[in-house]
Amino acid sequence: MIAVTGEPTIGDVFGEMIRDAYAVATGIGPRPLAGGRLPRPVIEIIERDDGLVNGAPAGHYLDPPEAWQPYDHRAVERVRGHALDVGVGAGRIALHLQQRGVPVTGLDTSVGALRVCRHRGVRDLVHGTIDQHVADGRRYDTFLLLGNNLGLIEGRERAAGFLAALAALARPGAQVIAHGTDPYGTTDPVQVSYHERNRRRGRLGGQLRLRLRYRLLGTEWFDYLVCTADELAELVQGSSWRLVDVDDRDHPYYLATLQLA
Amino acid sequence: MIAVTGEPTIGDVFGEMIRDAYAVATGIGPRPLAGGRLPRPVIEIIERDDGLVNGAPAGHYLDPPEAWQPYDHRAVERVRGHALDVGVGAGRIALHLQQRGVPVTGLDTSVGALRVCRHRGVRDLVHGTIDQHVADGRRYDTFLLLGNNLGLIEGRERAAGFLAALAALARPGAQVIAHGTDPYGTTDPVQVSYHERNRRRGRLGGQLRLRLRYRLLGTEWFDYLVCTADELAELVQGSSWRLVDVDDRDHPYYLATLQLA
User: Fold this and answer.
1) Buried-exposed string B172-197: b where 16+ CB fall within 10 A, e elsewhere
2) Considering its fold, how many domains does chain B have in total?
3) Rounded distance between C-alpha atoms, residue A3 and residue A13, angstroms
4) What is the ipTM of this complex?
């Protein structure tokens, strides 16, 4: 075995991070401290396979509606019937829908995130991936992929399977509301050369290969797609879904609506 | 060559980070953006050799005196004669002394940090380590190791050489004002087991092995010491310096004063 200095242990990165962000926000549970006394802000650390690393404060996962971006508000306005919040995170969207009387189920692969959701009052929670959830026999009218979670479609290889799993979970007439970002409006050479490197390898330009880290834990490396609405339209071709609307009022961010064909 | 996914390029991590933090704080120079539009906070990413990673907002390097911790104010009150600010960073301490008419020189190994210092108005700046600076023939009355920079003493192996270099730069009667932190007042198992692992390897408990990362860049791995005042007293034994005062009014943080024997 080759021990690489400073490598993380594989674990529930997102859950530990959300637990700590919740503790900082509410005082519930032990808070991470700097130097044993000053509170330490909870930072999500995202590594990319070209060596890029970014840190982002994690508090936004707990933001109340007043702090949301405008597209989040427009996304929840589009919900009809029973919603599945895919990647429910700390539950900000699910809680809001539930409070408005909308039937909503939160799905996440992070046990720690689901624990925080439950503590915050989200009533209907499922642990697992969309593929695993198909066997549970439950069906939905709206699938929410918010917080940039259109990225879960990963890329060309995964797209068909991802869209098929959503279709298998869908009631007749179901829709997907997905938040995406156009990655190509930048001149930052770090980003432009990453997009070119991806294309040379036969990947979509914004097909990010990432891992998350928090304290001692890391995820495995995974693909997360940042794509234009045009690229999404191509990925949707041949699936059971049709891209019926793109709301890009907050460009480069957009909301894509897919409708079961 | 083994390509390890996501490894950084060795470079001036601190300088790039300080340049961006300065751009965010002042609007001078291009600012890093999230998703091409929203400003991204500048986060310092610190990896430890056990796999621990921490992110901390970098803005504090630019803090004006009103935002400083109390021990920083007490440290600058102790300055006499010509001061060398060891690890001048973005120049917050040097600028303050200079504005009060105190002769001060800023030393740093980061070219990018020195560039920001110069832009902010710090007049006397030197690029290099304390060892390299000895040959320049300049001598000082006060050495400042603030912002936890007592850590630059690294551990048992480096301490004698570090203290000797400071002595070689010293005028008769010179002093060192160093900011340290007692690392042992925690029950966090992540920290406690790291201290134990260090001791099993013959290292001081708080002898951190770290590297910094920012965007595509990383430093080499280096030692940075977090030690108690008692441990410092042992390291100083046999050097040209005497530990003459420990101000621990802000425990676990302290200011250690060394006097040339």
Assistant:
1) eebbbbbbbbbbbebeeeebeebbee
2) 1
3) 21
4) 0.91
- With respect to residue B118, please indicate whether it lies within any of the assigned structural domains: yes
The answer as to whether A47 is a domain residue is no
CB atoms within 10 A of CB B33: 14
Q: For the segment B39-75, what is each residue's pLDDT rounded down to a tens digit?
A: 678 999 999 999 999 999 999 999 999 999 999 999 9
For residue B242, tell me if it sits in a domain.
yes
B150 domain-assigned: yes
Tell whether the model's pLDDT for residue B35 goes beyond 70.
no
- How far is the C-alpha of B116 from the C-alpha of B231, rounded, in Å? 35
CATH code assigned at B225: 3.40.50.150
Q: How far apart are CA A227 and CA A208, in angstroms?
A: 10
Q: Report residue A152 as tokens.
A: 């879960």
Can you give the pTM of this predicted structure?
0.93
Residues 6+ apart with CB under 8 A from A230: none
pLDDT at B37: 63
Mapped onto helix, strand or coil, the DSSP state of residue A186 is: coil
The 3-state DSSP class for residue A256 equals strand
Residue ranges making up the domain that contains B221: 60-260
Ranking A35-39, A203-207, B22-26, B209-213 by mean pLDDT, the lowest is A35-39
Q: Using an 8 Å CB-CB cutoff, list residues of chain A that contact chain B.
A: 4-9, 33-37, 40-41, 43-45, 47-57, 181-183, 185-186, 188, 190, 209, 211, 213-216, 218, 221, 252-253
Q: How far is CA A3 from CA A244, B45, B199, in A?
A: 50, 21, 20
Place of tokens 């192996």: B157
Pair of tokens at residue B129:
């380590």
Contacts of B201 in chain A (CB under 8 A): none
Q: Is the pLDDT of residue A36 over 70?
A: no
